[in-house]
Records
---
Amino acid sequence: MTAVPGRRSSTFTRLLRHGFTDPSAAERLLELDDLASVRSDPVLFEALGATADPDLALRGLVRLVEAEEEGERQVLLDTLITAKPLRDRLLGVLGASEALGDHLARHPRDWQALVTYEASDLHPGVAEFERGLADAVDADSLRVAYRRCLLTLAARDVCGTTGIAQTAAELADLATATLRAALAIARTAAPEDAAQCRLAVIAMGKCGGQELNYVSDVDVIFVAEARDGVEEHKALQAATRVAAHMMRLCSETTAEGTIWEVDANLRPEGRNGPLVRTLSSHLAYYQRWAKTWEFQALLKARAVAGDPELGADYVDAVSPLVWQAADRENFVPDVQQMRRRVVDNIPADRIDRELKLGPGGLRDVEFAVQLLQLVHGRSDASLRSGTTLEALRALADGGYVGRADAAQLDEAYRFLRSMEHRIQLYRLRRTHLVPEGEADLRRLGRSLGMRTDPVAELNKAWRRHASVVRRLHEKIFYRPLLDAVAQLAPGESRLSAKAAAIRLEALGYADPAAALRHLEALSSGVSRKAAIQRTLLPVLLGWFADSADPDAGLLGFRKVSDALGKTPWYLRLLRDEGAAAENLARVLSAGRLAPDLLMRAPEAVAILGDPEGLTPRTREHLEQEVLAAVGRADGAESAVAVVRGVRRRELFRTTAADIIGSYGTEDSPAEQDLGALVDRVGSAVTDLNAATIAGALRAAVRERWGDTLPTRFAVIGMGRFGGHELSYGSDADVLFVHRPREGVSDEEAGKAANAVVGEMRRLLQLPTADPPLLIDADLRPEGRTGPMVRTLKSYDAYYRRWSLVWESQALLRAEHMAGDAELGAEFIELVDPLRYPAEGLGEDAVREIRRLKARMESERMPRGADPTLHAKLGRGGLSDVEWTVQLLQMQHGWAEPGLRTTRTREALAAACAAGLIPAEDAEMLDEAWVLATRVRNAVMLVRGRPGDTFPSDPRELAAVGRYLGYEPGHVGDMLDDYRRITRRARAVVEERFYGAVS
C-alpha cells in the first residue's frame, strides 16, 4: 500500500470519506500485521464510519486485537466481518466509549458477550443482570462483571436498539443487581452480623425512579430490624457494618477501578444521622422533623435489595406521608424556596455548559414534574410514578399539564438525557458539563445521529431544547390554570376548578377562588388584550408566586389592566419589553406602597419598560420640571396638585428601583452593595422632597406676591432630610430663615415669611389621593413654643446666647434645601462654629450628650416594643449609630474636614480614614445602620405606612424578609441576623460613645 510521494493513498482518501479526522494515524494502524486480513475490507470501513468517533473505534479495535491471544485474534476479526450485529455493537461501543475500550483491552474475552443476539438479550431485566454478576466474589470480580454487563447495555444503546428511557431503566436494573451482589458479598464476609439482623436497601433518586445515568451516585436508604432474640442496638450495629461494607464494595477504587458512589445522605438527618435505622425510627423522624424536600425525595423510594418484606413495609409506610406533604404547614414557603433556582455554586464559566442545573436543564423538568405530583398526587393515584417521563405523561392525561407542553418537555428531556448519557459514557465519569473541545463535541453530535455538521447541529439542537425547557418549566404550572377558566374545545382535558384551587394554594395564593376569578377576567374573550394577557399570565403568575404576596400581585395586575388594557402602548410594552413585565410583577407583589402609587397614575408603568426609567432624576431636573409646572398652573392649589403628582410619580420610580434592585430579576441579580442601594433611596427621596418644597414655595409666593416675596427666604433641611437619608415615610424636618429685602420693614417681612410658611404647609397637606409631605419645624430654637420663622440675625443672637448642646448636635444635619441659595449658605456659615466647635467638645458637653441619649433610650422607646428589634431606638439601631458618629463629628470636625458632612455613612468613613475609629468597628456600625434603614424602608414598602419594628403579621413579615434577601420560611434567620448585627454594633457604641472621652 505504498503511496506515490506527494500523493495521498486511496486508503487515506477512503478514511477521510468515512469520517476519520486523523487518516494518517488510522492508515498506520491498518498497516499492522494483525489487521492484514481486514485492512481493505469495505465492510470494516463502512462500520467504522458509522460510529461516533471512527478514529477512537479503530484504536480500540487494534488494542482489543493485540490483547487477544494469538490463536483467537483471527476468530474475532472473522466474526467481526461476517456478523453484522456484533460488528455494529462492538465498533459502536469502541467509537463512543474510551473507558469500555480500556475494559476490553484488559479483558479481551468479554467481546464475546456481544455476540449473542437472543430476544431476552434485547431487553434484560434484574434477573438477567443478576446472572451476569453471579460469579462475583470480591470487589475486583464485581467490577469486571459489572463492566461486562454494562458493555452489552451500552451496545444496545449506541446501536439504537433501546431508547433513552429503556436505557435508563436498564441502568437502574443493573444497579439493583449490583447492590444485591455487593450485599451478598458483604453478608458472606460477616455471617454473624448477617444472622443478627434483617436489612433492606431502599433506592432513592434516579435509581429509585428507574431512570439512572451511566455514572451517577446511587442514592440509598437502609432500614433494619432485629431478628428474634437479638437486642435492637446490637442488630443495628451489625446491620451498619454490613451496609457500610456493601457501600465500600461499590464505591472504593481498586485495580479494576470503581463502579459508582453509593450515597446514603438522603437518610434522616443526612450524614449526621445513623446510617441504619429501624422502620419505626424512620417513621418517627418523617412524622416530626422531615422537610418538604425529603418527602419530594421519597417520591422515588423503591425497595431493591435485602429483605424484601421489610423493604415493602418501608415503602408502604412512607408512601402516605409523601402524598400528605402538600397539607403540611410549611409546604408553601418550602415550595417557593425549592422553586427558586440554585445556581450560586456553579462557577460562572460553567453555567452555560451545565446540562443538569443550568437554565433550561434537566433539573427544571424533574422539579416541575415532582412538584405537580406532590400537589395533585394526594388525590390522584395515577400520578404516583417515580419515573419522570411516566409521571409527565400521567399529568398530561389528567389535564394537569397541557398536552402540547408535555409533548415538548418530553422531547426536550429525552434529548438532554441522551446528551448526558453520551457525555458520561465516553470516559465513564460523573459529569453534567457539555464539553468545549471540537473533537469532543463532534463525537457527541455524531453519537446522536448528526453527521453533516455535527458540532453546529448539536449546539443548535441543544440550545433549542434548553430554550423549550426554560420557557415551559414555569409555564406548565400556570397554563392549565388559564385553561381551567377558559372555554376549551370538546374532548380536551382540563384542570378541574378544585384542582386549580389546590395548585394555586400550593403556590402561595391565600385566596385561590379570588385568584381564579381574576384569571378568568384577565384571559377571557377574543380581544387583543385578552390574547396578550393569556400569553403573559403563565409567566407573570410564576413571578407573583415567587413573592411573599402572590394574591396582591395578581389583583394589582388586574387593576392596572383594567385601567390601561385598551391603551396600545401598554399592551405593546408588556408584549415586547421582556423586563417590563417582570419588573411590573415584582413591584405589584412586593407590598402596598408601590402598587398604591401606581394605581393613582397607572400610566407610570411606562417607567418599568424604559432602560433608564429606574434611574432617579437629579434635583436640578426635578426642580426645573416642578417650577415650570407651577409657572403654567392657574392658582396655587392646582400648581401644588401638579407638584404632588410629580412627587407621586418619582416616588413610584424610586420604590420600583428599590424593589427590583433588592429582589433582582432573571437577567439582573439583586444589588450586592446594600449600602449603595440605601444611599440611592435616601438621596432620591431627599431630592424629590426638596423639589416638592421648592415648588410649594414658588406656588405660595406667586399666589399672593407675584414673582418676589418681600423678604429673602430659605428652607434649611434638618434631620434625615438634611442628611439625605430620608426613608419613604419620613417627615421633612426643616428650619425657616428669612432676611427682609431692602426697604421692607422687619414687621412686614416677618408677616410675609410667616404667611408663606403657613400657605406652604397648607398646600402640601391638602387632602388628595397623593401621599402627603409633612413639614416638621420642631427643631427650631425654643421648639414648638418658638417662632416658626426667624431672621438670620435672630438665629445668630439665639445661638450665641441660649443654644444648648443638643441644638448644636441637631445642626450637624443642617443643609440648604430650597429658596434663596445665598441666604441658605449664610445660615450654614453661621452654624458651622456651633456644630464643629473649635478644639472639640468639653467634658461637660460630652456628659450632657450621653445623658440625653440615655434618657431618650429609657423614655422614648414605645411601650411593649422589643428593644432588640426596634430599628430606630433599639439596641444597635439608627439612633445608636448616628449619635456615636455625631459625637465624633462634634469632637473632631474642627480639625478633620471629612467629618463636615450631613451624611452619617460619609462621616463614619471619614472618621475611620482619620484613625478616629478602627475599621472593624466602623464596619459594624455601618452594617447595622444600613440594615436598620432597610428594615424601615421595607416596612413602608410592605405595609404602606411607616414603622420602626418588624411587622407581626406573618405575610407582611415574610415580605420584609424577601426584600431583605431571605428565602421563604427563613424569617427566623432574618430576626436572628438582625439581633446579631445590631448587638455587635451596640458593643461598639458602648465603647465609643459611652466610653472614655478621646
Note: The mean pLDDT is 91.
---
Amino acid sequence: MSTDRLAGETPPGQEAAPATAEARTPDDAAGPGGAEAPESAEAPEGAEAPGEGATGREEGAEAAASGAEADAVGSGEETGTPSTGAESVTPASGADAASPGAANGSPAPGSETGTPSSGAETAAPASGAAAAHPGAAKANPPSGSAKATADALAAAVRAVESGERSAASFFNEAPRPARPAAPAAQPAKGGPQGGSQAGPTGPGPEVTRQRTAQETGGPARPDGPAGGATGPAATAPAATGPAPAPRPAVRALPGVEGVRQVLAAGGAPETLAEQTAEVLGERAAEALSEDPWLLLGVPGVRPEQADGFARALLGPACGPGDERRALAMVGWLLEQAALAGHSALEAAALRAALAQRSVPDPDDALQAAIADGAVLVFQDAIDEPGGRARPATGDDEEEQPVRVLLGLDRFAMAEESVADGLARLLNTFEAVAEPTQDTAPAEDGEATADGPGSGETTAVGEAADESTAAGDTQVTDGDTPGESPATTAPTADTPATGAPADHAPAPHPARPSATAWEAVAAAAPSPSAAELIRAAAHSGLVAHTGAEAARTEPAALIAAARSLGLRAFGATHTENGRRRLAAHLTDIAADVTAAGSPDPAAAAVTVSGLLSGREGPGRDADGALALDLLVVLDAPQLDLETAALLVESLTDGTRLVLSGDPGVLWSAGPGRLFADLLAARFCPQVASRTPDFGPIGELVSGIGIGELSQVEAPGKEVVIVPVRDAGEAVHRAVQLVADSVPRAFGVPADHTQVITVGHGGAAGTRALNAALKERLNPGPGRFGGFDPGDRVAYAPAPGRTVPGTVTGADAAGLHLDCDGSALVVPREQVGTGAVRHGWALTAHQAAGTRWPAAVVVLPGDATGGLTRAWVYTAFSLGERHLSVVQGADQALARAVAEVPVKERTTRLRSLLQQSVQSGEEPTAAD
C-alpha cells in the first residue's frame, strides 16, 4: 500500500462564499483574509460573494462570467460623493407645479422607490404659469413620502425576521404598484441631478432617486416593457438646479456603434460593445447613457468598474447613493449569489452586502428594488429541529417562524416550476393494477379479472403504496394523492397526450401489469436493482442514491422497462457518463432484451442532447419528450433552470427517476435540486446497497461518512505524494502525469486528469496547465493561445464542460475533437474564455466524468476551498489509479470531518414540503 498519511497544507483557488456564509465553489482563489484574489486584470471567473470581498466561483461560473475577462472598466475605486451644488429648490407658490417634473398627479418614477407613493404625489398642480425650473418643485413632498415608505417597509421586514410581527400581515398588505419594466434598470433621461435632495447631512450627501417621468419613454431592459409611468411623464424634462449633471457630448448612435461610442465616452473598453448590446437590447446605447450602472449586467464587469464608468459619464454629481446604482447593485449581488449556488438570499445578508458596497441606505435600496419589480420577496418557513417545516394550521393563532428571502424572478420561477412539475408527475401517475389476490376478498369472481383493464379500484392504489414502501424504499405522503387507482385502461384506446403516429413502435403508451413488473424485478441483476424497478412501477417520481457501482441499477431499470414495451431512456450529465451507461445497457442486453431497439445503447443520452433534440426519442406533437420513463443519472449536477426545462418537457403520467450520488458536489449553477428533493422526502427513495470495491472505492466510501483513513493498496492504486509548497506541487503533478503514471500503470498522459481546487493561485488550473503544456505539447499558441494537440475544456454553457483536443483553426473558429465528435468553437467564444486548456480541471468541471488515472493537487494556499463533498468528488474520478499531491496538511482531514458542504440558500425544499402538506389537507379534513 502506498497510501502515506494524507498530510501537507492547503489548496490554491478556492470556493469562496457569499455573505450568507453559504455555497462557495473553488474557482478563482480568494486572497488571504477574504480579500479578492488579484487575478491580473481578468474579471473573476467565479461569483463574488455578496457580502464578502472574496468570492471565487468555481467551475460552472466561468462560462457565465467569461464575457469580459480582460479590461478594467473605469477606475477601481468606489464612486465619489455627490456634488452638493444641486440642492432642492423650494418653489414659489402659484408657479411651482405646472411642469411634468413638479409634484403633480402623475405617479412619476422620481420617487424614492421607483413607483408612485400612495398619496404623496397626487397634489394637483397650482394654477398659474409653469415654473421656470421644471424639476425643482418635486423635491420636498415626494422625498418625504418615499422616505417614509422605505422606512415602513424596512421596519416591516425587520419585524417579520424578529418575530414581532405577523408574516401573514406583512405579505397581505397591498404593496405599492410596481412599474411594468420590472427587470430593467430604468435610465434617467436627464442624468443625475440633485433636485430632490434638501441638503447634505454628514460627510457625504446622498443623491436620492433621480429618475424623472420622462424615463418612461426611454429604453427598458430587455425583459420589461418599454413604458410604465402614467400621467404626463413622457415629456418631463430633466430636473434642473444650480449644477446639472454632465451628459455625453455626442448623441449615441443606434446599434453596436452607439454602444461603442458610449463606452468610449465613459473610458470603458470598446471590446465590450457587442456583449453589452446583447445584454441590454437594441436600445442599449441610449439605456447605457441614461443609466451607466446597467453596465453591471454585462458578465465580468465589477462594481468599481461600473462606478468609474458612471463617474466619467455623469461627473461629480454621481455618488454611491444614486438610486440607479443601488438598484443595479442589488441585482448584481443576487447574480453573484447565483453563481455561488444560491437561488435567493436572506434580507439581512443582502443588506450587509449592500452596506459593504458603500450603499448609504441598504433598506431604502431594497425597498426600491422590490417596488421596481427587480427583486421578489418570499417568506420561507423555518424548519423545526426534526428537519421538516412545521405544517400550518388554520386555527392556530401562533405564527410559524419564517425567514424573509429576496431573489431574482428567473430563479424563483425556475424553482417553482420544478416544484410544480415534480408534484404534477406524482399526481398524474396512474398506478398499475395489482394481482387479484391483493384485492378485497368479497365477490371473488369480480376480483379475479386478468390484466390492468379489469376494473380494480381503490385497493390498487393502497397496494401500490405498500409495495413501494418495501426494503429501503421510503414512501412519503407526497406520493399518495396523485396515484389514482387503475381503472379500465386498455392501452389501445388511451394514446399518449399529443403523441403522433410516426413515433412507432409505441404510438400508445404501454401499460404493463403489476405481474409483468414483478417478473422483470425478479429477474434483476441485484436486490437493489429489483427494489428500484418495483419503486418505479408504482410511482411517477423516484429518487435513487448510490455511488459509481450503483449505476448498474438504473441501467437495469431502463432495460427492464424497454422489455415491457415502454419508451425508456437514461440521461447523463456528460458524454463520458453516457458512454458508461451505454456500456452497462449493453452488458445487460444479453439477459434482458430491449423490445423494439436492436441497439440497447441507444437508450443512453445526455441531458443537453435530449433537450436539444440531438439525442433520444425527440418530441411529440405537443412538444413533450416522447417517452414513458426517464432516468436522470448524475442528478446532483442538475441546476434549477435545466431541471425546470426538463420537467416541463415531460407529459403527465411519465415516470421520472432521479439518480445520483448524494456525496458529490452540487451543480455549478444555482440550486441543490437533488439534495432538496431528498431532504423534503417528497417521493419514494431507494438507497443502493451496492458498494464501490477496491482501494479507491474504500477510500471514497470512508470520506463519504467523514472519515479519512489509510487503505491497503497493494497495487499502488492510491499514492500520496507529500509536498512543501505550491511550486513543488506543480512540479510533482507534471512528473506524475508525464512519467510516473505511464511507466507504472501504462496509462498515457492524455488519459490522466489533473484536478485542483480552483483556477487561480500558484497551483491552480492556470499554473498547472501552463506547466503541463510546456512539458507535453509546447508551442507558441498560434490559435488564440492554443496549438494543435492541446487538451482543452470547452464550456458551451454555464455548468457544462466538454473535454476535447485542438485539431486546428481557421476563419470559422477553433476546431476540436471531443470524444470522437468534431466541434468548431467560434472565434468570439474563444476570445471570451469559453475554451481553456484542459490538462488540469477543477472538481466542478470534472464532475460526471471519470478517467483511468487522476492526480489530485491539494496545495497549501487553498484550504478555504476544501469540503468533504469536494474531496469525495475529486478522489472518485480515477478508475484505476489515484495520486494525491498533498500539501494541505491537517486541513484535509479537518475538511472531511467537519465541513460536509458549502451550504446554499434555496427555496425548493420548502416548496416541495408545502406541496405535500397541501396534498394532505383534504385527507385530514375527511
Note: The two ends are 64 Å apart (CA to CA).
---
Amino acid sequence: MTSAPGRRSSTFTRLLRHGFTDPSDAERFLDSPELAPVRNDPVLLDALGGTADPDLALHGLVRLLEAQETATARQELLDTVIAAKPLRDRLLGVLGASEALAEHLARHPRDWQALVTYEPRDLHPGVEEFERGLADVTDPVSLRVAYRRCLLSIAARDVCGTVEVSQTAAELADLATATLRSALALAQADAPEDAALCRLAVIAMGKCGGHELNYVSDVDVIFVGEAVGGADEDKALRAATRLASHMMRICSETTVEGSIWPVDANLRPEGRNGPLVRTLASHLAYYQRWAKTWEFQALLKARPVAGDLALGAEYTAALRPLVWQAAERDNFVADVQEMRRRVVANIPAAEVDRQLKLGPGGLRDVEFAVQLLQLVHGRADASLRSGTTLDALKALAAGGYVGRADAAQLDDAYRFLRSLEHRIQLYRLRRTHLVPEDEADLRRLGRSLGLRTEPVTALTREWRRHTSVVRRLHEKLFYRPLLDAVAALAPGEARLSAEAARERMVALGYADPASALRHLEALASGVTRKAAIQRTLLPVLLGWFADSADPDAGLLNFRKVSDALGKTPWYLRLLRDEGAAAENLARVLSAGRLAPDLLMRAPEAVALLGDGDGGGLTPRSRASLEQEVLAAVRRADNAVQGVTAARGVRRRELFRTAAADIVGSYGTESQPAEADQGALVDLVGGAVSDLTAATLAGTLRAVVREGWGDTLPTRFTVIGMGRFGGHELGYGSDADVLFVHEPRDGVDEREASEAANKVVAEMRRLLQVPSADPPLLVDADLRPEGKSGPLVRTLGSYEAYYRRWALTWERHALLRAEPVAGDEELGRRFVELIDPLRHPAGGLDEDAVREIRRLKARMESERLPRGADPKLHAKLGPGGLSDVEWTVQLLQLRHGAEVPGLRTTRTREALAAAREAGLMSEEDAGTLDEAWVLATRVRNAVMLVRGRAADTFPTVPRELAAVGRYLGYGPGRAGDMLDAYRRTARRARGVVEELFYGGA
C-alpha cells in the first residue's frame, strides 16, 4: 500500500480508530497479495473493527486466504466476506475471538462454508442437527474435525450475539451429546462382539447433564450396563467396560487434530475406586446404602444422553426419588456447605482472586445455592427439578422460594460470569476458569462482551461488581425468604408457604422449626427501624447459626439479647456496621450454654464483640484487672457491694475469654480458626487464672476494709495451688488455695489468727452468695492435714509442719504453689520456704518414687466415676491430664534442683524444659503435650457447651456435636473426634508407662 507521504499516517490513524493495537503490523497484512482485491474496501475495515481483537481477526483472515487451495477458492471467500454481512460478522467474529478456531480454519480451509448458511433452523440447532453434522465420521480423527466444524457455528452465533449465553451452553451440551453418541458408535463398530453382549447407557452429569456446558470442560458421565438376553452378567459388564473405556479414549486422546475433551467418570459410585460400569441394581443399592450428600446433589443433573436410552431412563426413574429425600439426611445443609468450603480452601492462594468458577462470588456459589434450595423444596414441588441452573433459579423465584429481586440479580451475575468464562476458554479452547492478567487478553475479553470504551477497566469493574453481588446473596438466598414468610410482603410478591418454611428450617438443622419461625416473626415483623435492621441482619445470622451444632439455641439467645438491648441506640448499629460483631455474636450464642448465660446476665457485654480488629476479645492483664477491681472496691459502701462489683468484673471477663475462645476455635469468614490448639489452651488458662487472682485480691481488700479499715492485724497472703497456681484454670475450675498469715509486730497471735480466719470465712461466703454472677468456689483442701487441719496457718506453723510432717503427696502438691493475692513479701517468703521441699537437692529417693507411683495407681482405681469409660475420661483416664501431669511432676521432683527450667508451676513449660534437658525425647514430649492440650480443650468444651463442668464427653448427641464443632470437627464427625481422642490418649499412655512407671 505505497502512497504519497501522509497517506500512511492517515491509514495508521484509521486503524487505531478501528481498534487495532498494532497498526504497523495490520498495514503489512492489508498490503498482502491475498487482500489486494479488497484492501481499500471500507466494509472490511469496519467489520474488523467490530471484532473482539481486530489484529487477531485480520491475521486469521490472511491465514485462511493463504490456505485456500486455488485462486478461485480465495476469490469466492473474499466475495462472500464483502457481500454477505451475516457470514462476514460470523467469520470475522470467530477469528477475532478464537485463536484455536482460526488455526482449525487454516488447517481445514473449506470449513468456513459451515458459516454461510443463515436460516432460522440454523439459529437453534439441537442434538439432531449436530448428529447430522457428525454423520460422516469414520474414526477419531474425523470426529475431531467434524466436532470443531460444528463448534465453529456455535461460536459464531455466540460472538455475534445471535443467541444468549444459556442457549450457547445448551448447544454445547447438545453437541457433546451427539459427540458421545458418535464416539460410542465408533467403539461399538470396533468391537461388535462386545456390543452384542450388553446394553450400555451413558448418563451425562454435571454441566453436560444440566444442559449448560462450557466450550472446554470435562464431560462428566456415569455408565450403566446390563446383560443382553441370557448373556452372563459378568461377561456383559466386562464387555460394557471395554466399550465405555474405548469411548472415553476416543474423546479424550490427543491426535493430529488435538483432542475433544476429557470424559470423566469419577462421579460414579466409589469414584475412581469403583467399577467403571455397574448394573442398575448395583447403582441403586449403592445410593440407598452408601452415598454421601454430595452424590445426591450431583444426581440433580443426571440425564441419559447416549447408548441405550431406555436403560438410561430406567436409571433416572429409579434414582430420582432418592435425590429428593437427601434433604432429610442429618446435617444435610452443613454437609453441602462444608463441601463448598473445602472447594474454596483447595484453591491455590495465588489464584483465589482470579477464580471465576470456584472462588468466592464465582459461578459455583450460585450453583451451590440453587442446588441446595432445589434439594430442600424439590420433593414437594416438582417445578423445581430442572438440572439447568438458570431454569431452576427462575422456578425458585416463581414459587417464592427465592426473592424475585435477589433471583434477578443472581441471574444477571451468572449470565455475565458464564459469558466471561466462555470467552476465556474460546480463545485457545483450553480448560481454564482463571481470569487472565495480561492486558491484551483483558482487552479482547472486554471488547468481546461489548465493553468498547476502556475495555480493561470496564471489564474489571463489571466482573468485581457481579462477584460482589453473588458473594452477598448466595448464602442469604437460603434465609431471606424465611423472613418474608413471617412478614408482610408487597402485593403480588410470592412467599414461602408455612410448610416450605418449616422444611427449610429443618434442613438448616432446627429441631423446633415452629419456635424458630416465631422468633423470626418477633424479631423481623413491623415497620420500625429496629425491625428493618433485623431483616437486614437475620439472613446472615441464620447462616452462622446453621453452621453450629445448635441453631435453635443460637436464634433463641439472639432474640433474648435483642429483647434486652433492642431499645439501646448502639446495639443494632454495632451489629449492622461492624461485620465482626455480628458474626462473633452468632458464634457465641450458638456454641453452648456458658457464654450466652454469662451474656444474658449483663447483655451490654455484646460491645466487647465489636472491635473490628479483634482487640475487644483480647484478655486483659492481671495488673489491669486488679486495678479495676480494687478501684470498684474502693467506691463501694461495704464489703457486699465491693465483692458484688468484683464478681461483676469476673463475669464480664469470663464472657470475654469464652467469646475469644469460641471465635478462635470456630474461625470467622475473615479469620480462619486458630491452628495452634495449645495457644487457645494457654489463652483460656492464663486469662481465667489472672481473673481469679484479681477477684480474690478485690475480695480480700473489701473484707479487710470493712472489718479492720486499712490494715489487718496480721499480714495475709493467698497461695494458688493446682491449676490455679499453674495458670491453667478452666471455666469450671475451683480455686485451690492455701491461706498464710503472720501477725504484725505487737499483735497477739490469737488475735491475728482470729482475724485471719474471719477474713477467710467472709471471703468464701461472699464469693458464693447466690447472685446473677457465677460463684467462685475457694477450695483449701490441699492445706497441711487436709480437711482436718486449720484453714489458715502462720508462716512459722507451715515451716514447722513441713519440716516435721510433710508427706510425699504434700511435696508433690507444692510443685504448683504460687502467690496470687495479698501480702507480696509474705508470699515470697512462703515460696522460699517450700522451694527445698518441692525441688529437693539430690532429687527423690526410691521410696518416695514408689510412694508417688502407688498414689497414682490408687487414684486411677478409686477416683474414676462408676460407669465412666476410662478411655474417654479427660482427667483420670489413660493418657489424660492426670497421666501427663504426674509424669511431668515426677521429673520436677527428681530433677528440679539441678534443672532450673523445671522450677515452674506450668505443665507445658515444664514439659519443654524436660525435653531441652534431655530427660525425654522430643517425640515423647510432643506426644504428652498434644494429649494434655487435647484433654484440656475437651474439658473447656464441655463447660462451654453444657454450662457445667465435667471430665467426659457428653452423651446427648447435640451436645457431643457441639463439642466436636469446638474441636474442629464438622457436622456428622463426632465419631471421628472420639476416635482421635482415643488415639492421642493411647499414644500418651504409652509414654507415661515408660517414663512414669518404668523407672525413668
Note: Confidence is low (pLDDT under 50) at residues 1-7.
